[in-house]
Design a protein that fits this description.
The protein is built from two helices and 35 strands. The chain is mostly beta strands. The strands form eight sheets. Strands 2-8-7-4-5 form a five-stranded mixed beta sheet, with no helix packed on it. Strands 9, 10, 11, 13 and 15 form a five-stranded antiparallel beta sheet that branches. It has a five-stranded mixed beta sheet with strand order 19-26-25-21-23, with no helix packed on it. It starts with a helix and ends with a helix.
């Protein structure tokens, strides 16, 4: 074959394969999957008129070109746009922020996201569930902030704290108060609140206060501050700041190590209730004092559990929404820390005074560990309750005759009742009208009966009175009323007492019946005799014939 022809054929084959590759690549490009966009920001987004906002979306894109995401409303208005996104990996999700500015108050919606390349060509348009943006009308605002502070050297047991108070808003800040809430640093004077004159919009005012230290042993002093002011509308606004001052800032040199044990103890405690019933929740307030001349830190205060007898709860006292231990960062020298604990008392706890051990673990500035043991007395009472089951009295009584009055009662409480006395009171004489029990035990029931002797006719009232001493040594009185109608003897009324029967009641009716029976028996006997005689005569007559 000619060499020219061979070269020509090779050139044709190469061209054909190249065309196939190009066609395949074009077809692959046409088969690129559609992007997926999900809005990450929670809807609705609330902004103020004229304020810039950002909407976070997550995009999964299968192209390899840098793109820009454009958010449009349902009316095809551009609301937000991202910066040029580069480095997207095909099929890998990536979070992108779209920025926009709220032009006017009202409600806006983002309903579609466009993917645009660097030449402003729209590559894809993705429709999403409407993302709402609520734009509030712009109002006058007040923005009060603190500037950088300075402190003077600590001399004569005080130092001066100075800082500017800036109003960065558009309206005046009125009635400004600054509250200093620090256990380490205190405001010199009688109050921890400082009043500041009004600060106009865009202006600042220097605040200078003299402060003292609770202890000079610390290396860092924190001063929490709350600033509150009034708006022209009458509303109050506030913000918090924490000023941190070091010992070096105040010119305080580190003190040499102090020899000895810093004393921490339970100064006192209080209970919110004088009488604590089982099943109640009581507030226990602990006052832990550091009586030493140096600060202690890393305190752990624990209440020891008291096992409950005959109960499924396990312990008599259970802290509410808390464990039986709590931690304190520090207690300054000569200061007292107060802690309030809500404690639930087991309903089945025995009625007595419980000794609750309290353990206090703490450290000094050098990290040396110490401990202290204290005790708290918590008296627990159980419910004492007497239930009267019945008080019975006849509805009608006879004048001058003893009439029974009875009562049945039971101890349904959880403690024994002491010195139980049952009496009958009223305007009448009584017999056996008192009943006494030194101890009326749990679940015990008793029956009491006495007699009254009515002295006058007509309605009569009286009381059965129950008196006992509960477990707080208080007398408890329960009164039950009874009523009856008194009538003279021999004049029974409906349901009244019957007339007494004679000892030998008349038996006329019975005698009459006996006579009738006797007569009948005699007649029957006579009849039988006559019938026999006639029968014999008949036989004799038959023989003669």
């Amino acid at each position: 074959m000619n060499k020219k022809w061979f070269a020509f054929i090779c050139l044709v084959l190469v061209s054909m394969f190249t065309f196939v590759d190009i066609a395949g690549a074009t077809e692959a490009e046409l088969e690129i999957e559609s992007a997926v966009v999900t809005v990450v920001t929670t809807s609705p987004l609330e902004v103020v008129e004229g304020e810039q906002f950002a909407v976070a979306v997550e995009i999964t894109y299968y192209g390899d070109k840098p793109v820009t995401l454009v958010a449009l409303s349902s009316a095809n208005e551009v609301l937000a746009e991202s910066e040029l996104v580069v480095g997207l990996q095909a099929g890998v999700a990536r979070e992108v922020l779209l920025y926009g500015t709220s032009e006017q108050a009202g409600l806006m919606d983002i309903s579609q996201i466009q993917i645009v390349d660097g030449e402003d060509t729209i590559l894809e348009t993705l429709y999403i569930d409407a993302f709402l943006i609520k734009v509030q009308a712009k109002q006058d605002t007040m923005l009060l902030r603190m500037g950088a502070f300075t402190v003077s050297k600590y001399t004569n047991n005080e130092f001066t704290l100075t800082f500017p108070l800036k109003n960065l808003g558009e309206i005046t800040a009125n009635n400004i108060s600054i509250q200093f809430n620090s256990e380490q640093v205190f405001l010199r004077g009688n109050s921890n609140v400082l009043q500041v004159p009004n600060v106009d919009a865009g202006n600042s005012k220097n605040v200078s206060v003299k402060m003292g230290l609770a202890s000079t042993e610390g290396t860092v002093y924190s001063i929490p501050i709350i600033v509150t002011c009034d708006l022209p509308t009458g509303d109050k606004v506030s913000f918090d700041e924490i000023i941190t001052v070091t010992a070096a800032d105040l010119g305080i040199k580190p003190t040499p190590d102090v020899v000895g044990t810093p004393r921490v103890f339970l100064k006192k405690y209080t209970l919110s209730q004088g009488s604590i019933l089982a099943g109640d929740t009581v507030k226990l307030t602990l006052y832990v004092e550091n009586s030493s001349s140096r600060e202690v830190c890393n305190l752990k205060i624990s209440l020891a559990p008291i096992p409950a007898e005959n109960s499924t709860s396990g312990t008599v006292f259970s802290p509410v929404n808390s464990s039986n231990s709590f931690y304190v960062n520090r207690i300054a020298a000569k200061k007292t820390y107060t802690k309030v604990i809500d404690i639930y008392v087991d309903p089945n706890a025995a009625a007595k005074t419980y000794l609750v051990p309290i353990e206090i673990l703490y450290e000094d500035a050098q990290g040396t560990s110490f401990s202290a043991a204290e005790m708290v007395n918590i008296p627990v009472l159980q419910e004492s309750r007497l239930q009267v089951l019945s008080v019975e009295a006849p509805p009608i009584a006879s004048l001058g005759e003893p009439t029974p009055i009875s009562a049945e009662f039971v101890n349904v409480g959880k403690v024994a009742l002491k010195n139980l006395v049952v009496t009958i009171e009223g305007d009448f004489p009584t017999e056996n009208a008192s009943f006494f029990l030194a101890s009326f035990e749990i679940g015990q029931s008793e029956f009491f009966q006495a007699y009254i002797i009515p002295q006058t006719e007509g309605p009569l009232e009286g009381n059965v009175v129950f008196t006992y001493t509960d477990n707080t040594n208080q007398d408890v009185v329960t009164t039950m009323l009874f009523q009856m109608d008194v009538q003279e003897m021999g004049m029974p009324g409906p349901g009244g007492p019957e007339e007494p029967r004679p000892i030998d009641p008349p038996a006329s009716g019975r005698n009459y019946l006996a006579w009738i029976v006797t007569i009948l028996l005699v007649l029957i006997f006579v009849g039988v005799v006559l019938w026999r005689r006639r029968a014999k005569r008949g036989e004799m007559f038959d023989e003669e014939l």
